Amino acid sequence: MAHRLAELIEVFQKRSQEKFGLYGALQYIVLAGDSKPEEVPLTSDEAELLKRFSPEPVAYDNFSGRAWNRMIIGRLLRKGLIQISGLTLSDAAHALGLQDNWSREAACHALTISGRWNGRVSWNDKTREQEIRGYAKKILDAVVSKSIYLALETLSGQKLEKDLSLLEPFHDGNAMLKDLSVPSSPSWRWEAWQTRSIRRWGIA
C-alpha cells in the first residue's frame, strides 16, 4: 500500500520507534481505488461509516474500539469497498530481496513494528537489518511449510502427520524423497506461494 501512499512510509517509520501501542500499528484503512459504492447494496450503518473513509489512510485504531464498528468494517472489506493494510508475504519477500516491485523500506518498517511487538526484532539498530531478514524468513518458511503440507494432503487424499522427513526435501529445494521428485528453487518457492487475499494489502 505504501508504494502508492508514500506518506505511510513516514508514518510506519515513526511508529516503529514507539515502545508502546505497536499492536495494530500496521493497520490503516483507505477506500478501494476501483470500488463503486453506488453499485453495492449498503445498510444505513454501512453507508454512514463508509463516509468516514477516503483515499487518504486513516488508522484502524480510530474505529476498532467499538465491536459494532469492527463488524461494519468487516462487511465493507468483504464487499470490496475498503482496503486495510497489514503485514503479508509480499512484505517478507521484499525484505529478503525476492520481490522488488514495491517499497522495501515500507516492508522493513512493517517487519520492525511487528517484530518488536512480538519480540523477534530488538531495539538495537546495529542488528536490525539482520533481525528483519531473519524474521521475514521465518514468516516465509512458515507459510511455505504449511502450504506444502496442504498440497501433499490434497494430493494424497489423507491427513498427514507433521513429519519433518517428508517436508524438508521440498522445503530446502532438494525435493527428492525416494522416488518422488519436485524440482524447486528459492524463487520457485516464493512464486508458488505469493498469492494472498485480495482484501488484505501488504505494507509495501
List keywords for this structure.
single chain, 204 residues, alpha+beta, four-stranded mixed beta sheet, two-stranded antiparallel sheet, globular
What does it look like?
The protein has 204 residues and is an alpha+beta fold. The chain is built from 8 helices and 6 strands. It has helices at residues 7-15, 44-50, 67-78, 89-95, 104-118, 128-156, 164-171, 186-192; strands at 28-31, 58-59, 82-85, 176-177, 180-181, 200-201. Strands 2-1-3-6 form a 4-stranded mixed β-sheet, covered by helices on one side.
Helix and strand arrangement:
Layout: H1 7-15, E1 28-31, H2 44-50, E2 58-59, H3 67-78, E3 82-85, H4 89-95, H5 104-118, H6 128-156, H7 164-171, E4 176-177, E5 180-181, H8 186-192, E6 200-201
Parallel strand pairs: 3-6
Antiparallel strand pairs: 1-2, 1-3, 4-5
Helix pairs in contact: 1-5, 2-3, 4-5, 4-6, 5-6
Q: Tell me, what's the shape?
A: globular
Side-by-side strand order of the widest sheet: 2-1-3-6
Arithmetic mean of pLDDT: 81
Distance linking N and C termini: 6 Å
Q: Compute the number of strand runs.
A: 6
Series of secondary-structure elements, N-terminal to C-terminal? HEHEHEHHHHEEHE
Query: What would you report as the Rg, rounded to the nearest angstrom?
Result: 20 Å
Helix and strand composition category: alpha+beta
Helix content: 40-55%
Residue ranges: pLDDT <50 for 5 or more in a row? Answer: 186-200
Q: What is the number of helices?
A: 8
